[in-house]
Specification:
Blueprint (H helix, E strand, L loop, with lengths): L3 E5 L4 H13 L3 E3 H7 L5 E9 L2 E2 L2 H7 L1 E9 L5 H10 L6 E5 L1 E2 L6 H16 L5 H12 L1 E2 L3 H17 L1
Parallel strand pairs: 1-2, 1-3, 3-5, 5-6
Antiparallel strand pairs: 3-4, 7-8
Helix pairs in contact: 1-7, 5-6
This protein binds flavin mononucleotide.
Length: 167
């Protein structure tokens, strides 16, 4: 039985999703730093982590200590089956993976992290035939913004609830 939601968030967007999920399914949500001291090894968890250079932050630690039943990766690129496939491969995941679009808050990021995001924005701006969505993402990377919504989280909520019913 899944007992807890554990998350790793840098600027708060993953935390927002974790707390929304907690509220919707009635399981406690703990940041990784608290989880390692408050919940026993081997506890079954749902893990959420922010994506940094294709890697799901905190996942290796979570996998070492807990039984990770499913994962939600919070990144900034648009949700697409290729994104999920790439994340599954890079993070060597065999459990179910969900992808959620988070946000950017430049003032919470240091110089180098901001620089990385503005380089991604620059690449997007160089694309030919840019859609409104691409422009919007490039702006978000530079000036900040959030794509966090309850609607994005619905498939995750359904999965967790469905899982509870099965067990
Ligand atoms: C240094 C850095 C690298 C990132 N790399 C990726 C990436 O590879 N793919 C992606 O979709 N988002 C990437 N992002 C965007 C974050 O995953 C996104 O802003 C997320 O919502 C941050 O969550 P948090 O607020 O919980 O820390 C990156 C952000 C930073 C600062």
């Amino acid at each position: 039985m899944m007992e807890c939601i554990v998350y790793e968030s840098n600027t708060g967007f993953t935390k927002q999703y974790a707390e929304m999920l907690s509220e919707a399914v009635g399981l406690p949500a703990l940041p990784m730093v608290q989880a390692v001291s408050k919940i026993p090894r081997g506890t079954e968890i749902f893990f959420l982590g922010w994506v940094c250079g294709g890697k799901i932050t905190g996942l290796p630690v979570a996998e070492k200590r807990f039984i990770v039943e499913a994962v939600a990766a919070v990144g900034i690129v648009y949700p697409h089956p290729d994104v999920t496939a790439e994340l599954l491969k890079l993070n060597k995941l065999s459990c179910p993976l969900f992808y959620l679009q988070g946000g950017v808050e430049p003032k919470k990021l240091g110089y180098f992290k901001r620089k990385i995001l503005s380089m991604i924005a620059q690449n997007l701006e160089r694309q030919e035939n840019k859609t409104a969505a691409v422009w919007d993402l490039a702006d978000t990377l530079r000036i900040g913004g959030s794509y966090v919504s309850q609607a994005n989280l619905e498939p995750v909520i359904s999965w967790v609830k469905g899982n509870e019913v099965k067990e």
